[in-house]
């Protein structure tokens, strides 16, 4: 698989992410509630991570697109419900400060999560490669890369290629299990947020 083909698998995530944000915005506007919508979206995210944990080297390509699309629904829509929770829970004079703090925490969380996921991926892949490959330099070479170099991978023997694929899948599963655990915690935390009513903007009448 080339880098372009790998990147194309992220398109459904980006598209559905944007569409879900727009759709959930309209839904929340109509219902004037976000509590149950948020729990549903967090649950969808958890389900999508659970599905990603089922991926293996024989998984059809269309399943990857579908699973990432489902993830886009949950993550994209929850951006809206999280924002509504903030806007309806703090006084108007503090909303700018709280929103800025929220985005700062979100950005920091993304950075920490990416770092942690990278560490887990490289640690697990290196462990599997060291135990299955006789060449330490080869194990180090592939365990330090998130994406497989197609040219180098093609030059390997069939057993070595399979060992590398197995190591990568084990590392990906470890990352997806981490994300699944985080998503389940998000569902649990969502139960305890305030169920505020979104006030209608009377100035628009």
Write up what this structure looks like:
- The protein is mainly alpha-helical.
- The chain has one domain: MFS general substrate transporter like domains (Growth Hormone, Chain: A).
- It is 76% helix and 0% strand.
- It contains 8 helices and no strands.
- Helix 3 runs antiparallel to helix 4 and helix 3 packs antiparallel against helix 8.
- The radius of gyration is 21 Å and the shape is elongated.
- 24% of the residues are buried.
- The mean pLDDT is 85.
How are the SSEs ordered, and which strands pair?
Elements: H1 3-8, H2 11-31, H3 35-52, H4 61-87, H5 95-132, H6 136-143, H7 150-154, H8 158-190
Helix-strand makeup class: mainly alpha
Proportion in helices? over 70%
- Low-confidence stretches are none
> What's the pLDDT, averaged over the residues?
85
The first-level CATH class is given as: Mainly Alpha
Architecture per CATH nomenclature, i.e. the level-2 architecture: Up-down Bundle
DSSP strand tally: 0
Number of domains: 1
Give the N-to-C terminal Cα separation.
55 Å
Integer-rounded radius of gyration: 21 Å
Basic shape: elongated
Order of helices and strands: HHHHHHHH
CATH-defined superfamily:
MFS general substrate transporter like domains
CATH topology assignment: Growth Hormone, Chain: A
Described by strand count, sense and barrel closure, the largest sheet is:
none
Strand content: under 5%
Q: With helices defined by DSSP (H or I, 4 residues minimum), what is the helix count?
A: 8
